[in-house]
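Morning F.,

Quick status update on the modeling queue. The single chain you submitted on Monday has been processed. Sequence for confirmation:
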Amino acid sequence: MRDQLRFLNEPLAAQVSDEMLLFSEPEIRRLLDQSKACKECKGFDYCEYEGMTGRLDLWENSLRYVVSQPCVVRKNFFETKKTDTILKKMKLPATVARMNFANFKADTPELKDLAKLSKDIVSGQLYIGLFLAGEPGLGKTHLGSAMLQKKKKKGKAGIYVTTTDLFKKLRAFEKGNPDELLDLVSTVPFLFLDDLGVEKPSDFVRQELFHIINCRSNNARTAANPKGLVTVITSNCIPSELIKRLEGDSKSPTGQAIVSRIVGMCKPVIVEGKDRRIRG
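Structure tokens below.
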């Protein structure tokens, strides 16, 4: 029994007497059983210990099994559950959900190249995000949606959100904690942020947007970090116009800082052509 205790806690094994070991055998075996169960973990749903780790404490003349702290599996289970709840509230709008690579009309050489670029980013051949700028109705949202849906089919978590809807949710996320949404948007593996620059500029918008973009820039997918975050952003504004739009009348340098980070982690592409919605 001393060998088993040494396996669990070597310093503790050196402190107890043979008599104490004999008296504490049920408690030691209880922790041994849990240790074995944890090594063969099948997930939180199957855990008889409810994801709580144990330890042995020296108490008077015996060893006592005590519940210690939540295990990593339990923490991940509840974190994922919380994330899934938020994700379900941010489903793709029906019109956007119908947009995919199969029905994207790449009817010009430029759009064909752009569609290929988008697919290469999704497949991981290119370690970069994408910033699509141009007038409305040129297929920017369509491509972003196609990329997001392709990524989700591969089992990766992703979010679509317009900037106006995002900031509305952040101000009052169902009377809950807006930080939960902010953290999710900042760390989700694939983020499609649509129509950046449409929102009315304010200190709140600049502050929250900088937090999101800065977090994603610091953890962006690169050749050195191939499992990093992928960000796709669309805007009616080219980078220089977007800086002015975000700054508004404040002359805040935050607009420049935001756009600089976007261009650093996303390939900027200016999309040109005629409004497809008006053309039909």
